[in-house]
Each structure stands twice: as C-alpha cells, then as structure tokens.
Known about the structure:
Elements: H1 3-30, H2 42-63, H3 66-72, H4 81-99, H5 110-135
Amino acid sequence: MSKYTAYIMIGLARILGGMSLLVFMIFLFVGSLNLLDMRLDEGGVLWFDAGLSLLFFFQHSGMIRKPFRRWLARFIPEEYSDAVYAIASGIVLLLVVLLWQTSAQTVIHHPVSFAGRSAQFLSFAFSGFIGVLKHWGFSTPSA
C-alpha cells in the first residue's frame, strides 16, 4: 500500500476513533441524544438498546482477538490492523450513540450513576494518556 493509503488510514482512525470517544463521553453525561425516534414500546427500546450494546461488544472484543487479526492479515498488511480496528470501533460506537433510544426505565440511580460515570471518565483519561505515550514512542505493557 502506498504512503498515502497509510496517511488516510491513520487519519480515519484518529478522526473516527477520537470523535466517537468524544461523542460517547458526552452521551455518558447527557444521556441519549434522541436523534432518531423509532417509536418503539418500552420493551422494544430495551431490546434495541441491548442489541446495540451487543453489536459494540462483539465488534470491539472480536476484532482484538488474535484469530481475527490473523484472518484480517490475509486481506490487509498487518501494520494497518490497529487502524482498521480503530475505524471499525469508531463507526460502531457512533452508531450506538446516534441510534440509542431513551428508556423510561431507571437501572442505576444517581449516586451510583455518578460513581460509574466518574470511573468511566477516569478510564477514558487513562486510555488517552496511554495513547499519547504510544504515539510518542514510549513502551507500554501490552494487553
């Protein structure tokens, strides 16, 4: 692949990955953006949102596995696998946030919700810090 392809892949990974994380952080603190009202009943909303969550889980967890990475390496150079992963994760996370339906059900109440959101914010901040370290060439423990 050409160097322009590399620039495009890296640019898409940074834009989609970074933008999706920013939109997701807003989503965590504000709630559903209500961009699309699918007019589902309460049960339908819960099933739809659960499906969106599972979609992200399977994509995000599946693409990081070594068997998938070996399979992907048959189609694209291995050095692009992280960019493909970031692009796909960004797209799916944006779909989750943009399609999420508001539910009348309250699963977690305010004090616990605040603690959970704070933990999520700290994990995003830590992940961003690790990303900066990797970008600048510092070694970090691999998962």
